[in-house]
Amino acid sequence: MASPYGITNVPKLTIEAVQTVVPYKVTDQRRPSRVLATDPIASGIFRRCLHVVLYYKNVSEEDSGWIFAGWAKESLGKAISEQPMLSGRLWRVEDGNGDLEIVSNDSGVRLIESQVAVTLSEFLEFKEKEEAEAQLVFWNDIDEHDPQFSPLFYVQVTNFQCGGYSIGISCSILLADLLVKEKFLNSWAKIHNNILSSNNELKKPLFYLHHLKRNGSSPPSITSSTPRKDCVKTLHFKVIVENANFDDETCKSLALHCVEETE
Questions:
Q1: pLDDT grade, residue 4 (50/70/90)?
Q2: Which of 7, 120, 142, 252 is 20 to 30 A (C-alpha) from 43?
């Protein structure tokens, strides 16, 4: 089946839901952050983004991307409350120079739920994997003329047939420092794990897509992502935990090592 990215041997990914996640609490001081550039701001700044893809094997029958996305609706809202700029929007400053600024106005980030008719192991063996991975990260270029309507941060959870899933994260290159240097992903992971540990009695999250779908069929086409064919570099880190007892500190050290290698 052909995909919108020109790949012929990879089944087409189906988007099942698009949600907006807003900060858990209203941002009190919505201070704008000016976009600094030594040269005049060109249109390329509206298309440049950072992609991160994380893969997970399901560890139990109760583990799936659908369940993760349900809990992520809550944990992501709390995480962006600590970094409200991620849920902000880009504005043109009314100074006649066309300068830009990011305003933390709580407009929200996009949470995409999708699925693909192939197992995780099969997907990772595709020869055109770098192109195939483009389907796992949702991104729409910022509208150059009306940037205030374009989200700057996307999270896509893709479910594979085997029960495994991927988390694809995309953000404007203008927010890359918040994602990497401010260790947003680490903060979000801690918030997410705390929510799970405090809700042990609840096996399914409130925003569980399979409970919300009416007829069990997928929507025809909710929205489409901007195809990305200009990825600079893909780095892969494979961690095998079978027959190994990794404690929290070991896992943290492994994750930190991967981040350092990527940087």
A1: very low
A2: 7
